[in-house]
C-alpha cells in the first residue's frame, strides 16, 4: 500500500531480523492528510509482515513505541495498539 511518506526524512536501517526507522516520519509535501498513530502502526505492521523481519524499532524524532502501541512524541492523540515484533 502507498502511504506517501517523505523518504528523504526517514532512514531505514536493516539489521539481521530487525528494521529500524530513524529521523522523521512525515507525509510528502502537498499531502492533505497528516499521519496519525493508526496509520503509523499500519506501516509498522506491513514492515513486520516481511518474512525475514522479526522486529521493527523506531528511533524517530516525532513518533515512539510505547507499551500500548505507537504515539506521537509530545502527545497528539491516543496510541495505536498493535504488535511490532513476533
Walk me through the topology.
Elements: E1 10-15, E2 18-23, H1 37-48, E3 55-60, E4 63-66, E5 69-72
Walk me through this protein's architecture.
With 86 residues, the chain is an alpha+beta fold. It has one domain. 14% of the residues lie in helices and 30% in strands. The protein is built from one helix and five strands; from the N terminus they run ββαβββ. The protein has one helix spanning 37-48, and strands spanning 10-15, 18-23, 55-60, 63-66, 69-72. It has a three-stranded mixed β-sheet with strand order 1-2-3, covered by helices on one side.
Distance between the ends: 22 Å
Query: Strand-and-helix sequence, N→C?
Result: EEHEEE
Strand residues, percent: 25-35%
Rg over CA atoms: 12 Å
- What shape does the CA trace take? globular
Mean pLDDT: 87
What number of domains?
Answer: 1
Structural class by helix and strand composition: alpha+beta
Low-pLDDT sequence parts: none
Question: Residue share in helices?
Answer: 10-25%
Sequence of strands across the biggest β-sheet: 1-2-3
Largest sheet: 3 strands, mixed
Number-wise, the strands total 5
Count of alpha/pi helices: 1
Keywords:
14% helix; 3-stranded mixed β-sheet; 30% strand; 86 residues; two-stranded antiparallel ribbon; globular; 1 helix; 5 strands; alpha+beta
Outline of the structure:
The chain is of the alpha+beta class. It has one helix spanning 37-48; strands spanning 10-15, 18-23, 55-60, 63-66, 69-72. Strands 1-2-3 form a three-stranded mixed β-sheet, covered by helices on one side. A two-stranded antiparallel ribbon has the order 4-5.
Amino acid at each position: 500500500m502507498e502511504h506517501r511518506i517523505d523518504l528523504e526524512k526517514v532512514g531505514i536501517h536493516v539489521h539481521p531480523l530487525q528494521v529500524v526507522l530513524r529521523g522523521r516520519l512525515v507525509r510528502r509535501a502537498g499531502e492533505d492528510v497528516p499521519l496519525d498513530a493508526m496509520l503509523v502502526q499500519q506501516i509498522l505492521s506491513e514492515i513486520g509482515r516481511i518474512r525475514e523481519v522479526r522486529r521493527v524499532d523506531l528511533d524517530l524524532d516525532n513518533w515512539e513505541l510505547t507499551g500500548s502501541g505507537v504515539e506521537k512524541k509530545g502527545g497528539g492523540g491516543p496510541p495505536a495498539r498493535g504488535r511490532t515484533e513476533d
